[in-house]
Design brief:
The protein has 162 residues and is α+β, with helices and mostly antiparallel strands. 37% of the residues lie in helices and 27% in strands. Bound molecules: methionine sulfoxide (SME).
């Protein structure tokens, strides 16, 4: 990862995660920091798998426009596809991707990064941008490093629930 802004944000998220005793607080800290510091990150949020229904993602803390997609089946959307495939999905132009579920008409590109804990996916980070092709390898590396921090936090705080 080259981008110094990414390195600084990652260091702050890491530091916060060490002191936090509450996953929701860590989520709020992360979405707030990313939305504030990264101008192309126009919508930043978490979707976590419903503990009572492993086939449904539930909207968590976010920054950006309100979305009607508060529950997404894993069979739908780019968000669902990231869980189904167990991999980061990067879409340069959402208008060309039939899986895309629209949140804002301004969105042009999207990246979704799974969060793994205890060997399974527990949720994901979803970022939308108003710019086409806003996300590249550095964004992927940054967000996957963030996802590792979140996954480790969940593994080491089993009582937090997600
Ligand atoms: N675009 C996502 C839905 C979530 S909203 O963007 C916040 C998708 O296609 O799954």
């Amino acid at each position: 990862m080259q981008h110094s802004e990414f390195e600084e944000i990652l260091a702050q998220v890491e530091t916060f995660s060490v002191a936090a005793d509450n996953f929701a607080a860590l989520q709020e800290f992360a979405v707030s920091l990313m939305a504030e510091r990264l101008p192309s990150y126009n919508w930043v949020g978490f979707y976590m798998l419903d503990p009572d229904d492993a086939n449904t993602l539930v909207l968590g803390p976010f920054r950006g426009a309100a979305t009607e997609h508060v529950r997404i089946p894993v069979s739908e959307g780019i968000c669902g596809a990231a869980v189904a495939q167990g991999a980061t999905i990067l879409v340069d132009d959402v208008s060309c991707d039939p899986r895309y579920l629209a949140c804002s008409i301004e969105t042009r590109s999207e990246i979704v990064v799974p969060i793994w804990a205890g060997g399974k996916i527990v949720g994901e980070i979803d970022i939308d941008s108003h710019e086409q092709r806003a996300f590249g390898p550095e964004d992927r590396a940054f967000l996957e490093a963030c996802a590792k921090i979140f996954g480790r936090f969940i593994e080491t705080h089993p009582a937090v629930g997600v």
